[in-house]
Amino acid sequence: MKTKKRVRRLYKTGYALTPQKRIDQSAVLCEDCSILGIGGASAFNMDAELEVYDLPNAYIMPGFIDSHIHGAGGFDASRASNQNGDIKNMSHLLASRGITGFVPTVVSLPKERMLQEIAALANVMTAEVPGAEPVGIHLEGPFINVQKRGAQESGAIRKIDLGLARELIAAGNGLIRRVTFAPELAYADKLVELLCENNIQPSMGHSIANESETLRAIDAGARCCTHLFNGMPPLEQRNISITAVALTDDRVTTELIIDGRHLHPRMVELACRCKPGAKLVAISDATMASGMPDGEYFIGESVIVVENGFSHTVDGKLAGTTTMLDTGWHSLMNYANTDETYAAGSVSYNPAFSLGLTDRGILRPGTRADMAIFEQETNRLLMTVCRGEIVYCAEGIKPVQTPVEQVMDETEE
Questions:
Q1: Which of 98, 155, 376, 407 has its CA 20 to 30 A from that of 383?
Q2: What domain range includes position 380?
């Protein structure tokens, strides 16, 4: 008979963003991997079983979830079968930025290579990671419009082939959560139906679809739009395209790259004014170069050059980012004059809700203890908690109380 110790922690901060509301002088009580309670700090009894962190000049919020990220720390999701980088490095780096969940994104590749990389990625995602947790795979292609391919290789982009789509789904071994496609392609509605049948979210993007083509995909079941404004036509007052429809149709959840370079601040503000509630998701679109020095890197088969922290293709096109969510989400407040709950929701509750992750993204009893704690004045990350474990802690942060004895509630054979 082996005893299983119970771990109970209380995190006291200046305020909490749940993110749906702000709670001043807050406290979050956790046991093992779950949140037991949240509220005003005075409501909690400082019993001897608790490990207590008292951070009055900090704020706590749900851990960030990056639902569109290609890599970080030298790991590229599109090259999972043969590279020096390790998804564990990516997991560790993201945790050091307040991120507790992420969706590795694979770009368009030649058929056999894409099947190989998806299978390899699915395999490495089953291993235990030290920090942020991969929660599914996003395929950003290959059924997109070559005219809006961005940094993706044109030779890897294909017409919609339902047989190939089934092969890609099978290679993902149940881990594919989202597929980006262009609604104007022939058989797009059939692809949407196939994806929905397999509990995979169809996301419209890298597209020149007009109004009717976009609405047909939405009516078929597409409810997401990949990085709004990027990889699609600009807004026009008479020619309505996927851009205007995704911006104004409340059925559609839209991604927004928040690196401060992909979008003018006015466009960020426009999106925030148009998209209600949980319908706007902030993403990094970060590459393997995130957290790495300037130099040459990859997104799949495309070479990207990183100079002064900005990434582009060899011919000068923007190619992903090196900016992660911990710095990017403040641009929603700075550019769009949104309140802190809206901005915080865009990096936590909204992506969780969009991905169908009902156990995280919000500070509420019964949900996972996935949290990030930041210093109020500087927004410096102080601590990241994932699955109830402290996976990142800034130097000098220590508990003010440690448990006298950890009490055993359960035993395991």
A1: 407
A2: 2-62+362-412
